[in-house]
Amino acid sequence: MNKEEIIKNLVDASHYISNSGLTPGKSGNISCRFYEDGVSKVAITKSEISKGMVETNDIVIVDMDGNTLEGEGKPSSETFLHLGIYNERNDINAVVHTHSPYAAGFSMSEKELKRLEGFGKIENPYISSVKYSKPGSSELAKDTADIMKSEDAVILKNHGVVAAGISLDEATLLAQFIEDIAKTQFVAHILNL
């Protein structure tokens, strides 16, 4: 897939996650790793924009050190979180970070989010959590990358969700699936009161 196709897919995925209610306001960010002339690069949504309003000029291309190569505006404040995951996982080509309400609610509670069937083999009964660090911080990026060495999705305590996949479709569907299982478990908790 060439750079123009990747940028178009990021725009489409941004609109999808916004329309699905996964990124309220200006929250969240998504990225896709690609290779151009044998060099690894990352296309990522710029900072401070609603994902429902993203256009092609709102995608920034960075190198693996976070330096802006192309695009207008500042790349997402979570750029180093994305880069940390890519540097740990050669099999990951897309990262989606959401602030979806039900999963974020779990991230702010003491309840763990159970894994449910429907998105691959269940090896760990719960979705792993990353301890709270300030959004955009190097601590959050490092801690997330460390846990994502063996996970495709994590809950960021008091923050949101990070989902990764071999493709943008896989990462986006996983982020949506996590929100759906959070809704199901929220309803189950209420019914069991």
Which features does this protein show?
single chain, 193 residues, alpha+beta, L-fuculose-1-phosphate Aldolase, 5 helices, 8 strands, 35% helix, globular
Structure characterization notes:
The chain has 193 residues and is an alpha+beta fold. It has a single domain (3-191), classed as 3-Layer(aba) Sandwich (L-fuculose-1-phosphate Aldolase). It is built from five helices and eight strands, in the order αββββαβαβαββα. It has helices at 3-19, 79-88, 101-107, 138-147, 168-191; strands at 29-36, 39-45, 59-63, 68-70, 94-98, 129-130, 153-156, 160-165. An eight-stranded mixed beta sheet has the order 4-3-2-1-5-8-7-6, with helices on both faces. Helix 3 (101-107) packs across helix 5. The longest helix has 24 residues, at 168-191. The protein is globular and about 55 Å long. It starts with a helix and ends with a helix.
